[in-house]
Amino acid sequence: MQNHSYANIFPMMNDEEFKQLVASIRDHGLHHPIVTFEGKILDGRNRFAACEKAGVKPHFIEYDGSDPLGFVERTNLHRRHLNSDQQASVVAKLAVRY
């Protein structure tokens, strides 16, 4: 499944974080569904890839709000550990979109 361009504003997890996510999903299942919009992944690129690697069937829900870019921003800024270069890159990408 393709990623929505809004999802690509944020970087993917680093290798260690991804390995931990794969192990968690393999051992405990997927706890948060992958959010799609316009037939693409809006939120959950790492979870989707981890499900594939762990051999776990992913669960999807369709975004039904009116601000998909704002949703991606609010969802990821608070849960992702971004270094200062990554934060600057995200801010620049968001500034172009608004």
Can you describe this structure?
By secondary structure, this protein is mainly α. The chain has one domain: Alpha-Beta Complex (Conserved hypothetical protein from pyrococcus furiosus pfu- 392566-001, ParB domain), CATH 3.90.1530.30. It is built from four helices and three strands. The chain has helices at residues 15-28, 45-54, 68-79, 84-97; strands spanning 34-37, 40-43, 60-62. The chain has a three-stranded mixed β-sheet with strand order 2-1-3. A hairpin with a 2-residue loop joins β1 (34-37) and β2 (40-43). α1 (15-28) packs across α2. The longest helix is centred in the first third of the chain and has 14 residues, at 15-28. The radius of gyration is 14 Å and the shape is globular. The protein starts with 14 loop residues before the first helix and ends with a helix. 18% of the residues are buried. The model has no long low-confidence stretch (mean pLDDT 89).
Key attributes of the depicted protein:
single chain, 98 residues, mainly alpha, Conserved hypothetical protein from pyrococcus furiosus pfu- 392566-001, ParB domain, three-stranded mixed sheet, 3 strands, 11% strand, globular
